[in-house]
Amino acid sequence: xxxxxxxxxxxxxxxxxxxxxxxxxxxxxxxxxxxxxxxxxxxxxxxxxxxxxxxxxxxxxxxxxxxxxxxxxxxxxxxxxxxxxxxxxxxxxxxxxxxxxxxxxxxxxxxxxxxxxxxxxxxxxxxxxxxxxxxxxxxxxxxxxxxxxxxxxxxxxxxxxxxxxxxxxxxxxxxxxxxxxxxxxxxxxxxxxxxxxxxxxxxxxxxxxxxxxxxxxxxxxxxxxxxxxxxxxxxxxxxxxxxxxxxxxxxxxxxxxxxxxxxxxxxxxxxxxxxxxxxxxxxxxxxxxxxxxxxxxxxxxxxxxxxxxxxxxxxxxxxxxxxxxxxxxxxxx
Length: 333
Ligand SMILES: Nc1nc2c(ncn2[C@@H]2O[C@H](COP(=O)(O)OP(=O)(O)OP(=O)(O)O)[C@@H](O)[C@H]2O)c(=O)[nH]1
Fold this sequence. Notes:
Shape: globular
Number of helices: 10
Strand content: 15-25%
Order of helices and strands: HEHEEHEHEHEHEEHEHHHE
Number of strands: 10
Helix content: 25-40%
Structural class: alpha/beta
Largest sheet: 8 strands, mixed
Bound molecules: guanosine-5'-triphosphate
Radius of gyration: 20 Å
């Protein structure tokens, strides 16, 4: 009788374990909407009132979600980047695998800003998909729209219905209205949904079929089930996504502007930005001017390094955290 051990188990016996796969989430939104509060609440369970504004941080954090150990890398982006940091914003977007797009229900401007940021996400992720390999299929990038500060009822400027509608219009995978201050459960459900949608889409890259999703029905049902029906609204991929897929295929075949013009202003913007790989360098500035709600986004400086370095958490403990900082007052992280 012979016993054989696989190379993997031999390595494990010697104490060598494969590097865990991390889940890279970026939290973005206008300054003051509560991005740092959300991330810190998720990691420490505490609500801390004030944070250093405009300091970009990457948190490495591991915890159990859906009975699985998940290694998070959470990038808390600067809400009001300096001009020189715009290219950094785009390289951060290219680094991330899922997004939490945040506004405050007490601030109409922050709500409008989500439109522009989602446009930037689409633009940067589309380029990556086209320049990598079409063989891999079209990777869906989950974006969860979050309206924060729901506890400030008297100051509310954006209704729940408007948030829900905007989530559909700009093609987010689901919508949550939360109060970081009041509820840790709501905070957790945001990260859990981001992870669930990412998991389903990364397992089934060609998730978006013409009439919806073709992933395993059980997996989808789990991913799409709202965690808290009172506060979360989950939805399937939108018609916009399907249109984009058709455009991308057309763009890859050398057809520019192949998709039709049905839909609102958002859709037409999104449509015309596809199939632009060839003339991208020359028209980048034009694109950025359009992506900006006030047409004042500065021209793109030299290409930034990519991806942004992150702090990694060592594996052993079941709940560990480390914090990396970058910004004007930190040189390493
Ligand atoms: N009432 C209330 N205040 C909140 C909530 N979440 C965050 N805040 C407050 O909103 C302010 C801004 O929060 P931050 O987390 O610093 O916002 P930010 O988006 O990270 O801001 P930048 O770092 O400048 O981009 C702070 O005073 C927080 O205490 C909430 O759910 N309810």
